[in-house]
Amino acid sequence: MGAVVMYSSVSVDGFVADENDQPGPLFDWLSGGDVPLDDSGALTVSQTSYDYTRPYWDEIGVTVVGRHVFDLTDGWDGKPPGGVAHVVVVTHRPAPEGWDREAPFHFVNGVEAAVARAQQLAGDRVVEVAAGDVGGQVFAAGLVDEVRMDVVPVVFGSGKRYFGSVDAQHLLADPDVVIRGNRVLHLRYRVRR
């Protein structure tokens, strides 16, 4: 089975969005370089960020998100973001009315069941869990193997926390990746068990 990775861009003070669910400058690094990160050409990063990010993105088989993110993005119009094969949505509600049942989205109740479904779909590829409330729940349940964050030099002061409502101490291993890109610091930590 592939690793379960919690991931997002994050402010220096630990937020993935402001109080209004807006990322502000958190994704500016994705347009701050001259190397295309994907085929669309809309995302351009530094060579350093490309060398770190592109191989990781190529490993992702399934992304796990909460219903809130799904609703905010309008379900990406039924097309998983970034070329990911499947999206597992953690929710207590059914798919939206009129949702295309053929779209590779899976609506699952509870984080444990969502991760199990994502691992089944991903096989030996990475299961990426979006940071925030659902990511924090998956992390607190002990289901995350590593934490990746793209730390952006901005302070939000308040907003949506990277680890959601996690309220207990958890130790991570020393960072095994620390890479400086343009307007971003890429970090990777293994989760201590």
TrEMBL record:
InterPro entries, per database record: DHFR-like_dom_sf (IPR024072), RibDG_C (IPR002734)
Note the Gene3D superfamilies from the entry. Dihydrofolate Reductase, subunit A
Q: Name one GO biological process term.
A: riboflavin biosynthetic process
Cross-referenced Pfam families, in alphabetical order? RibD_C
Looking at the record, the residues that make up the Bacterial bifunctional deaminase-reductase C-terminal domain are 7-170
In Swiss-Prot or TrEMBL terms, this protein is called: Dihydrofolate reductase family protein
GO molecular function term, any single one:
5-amino-6-(5-phosphoribosylamino)uracil reductase activity
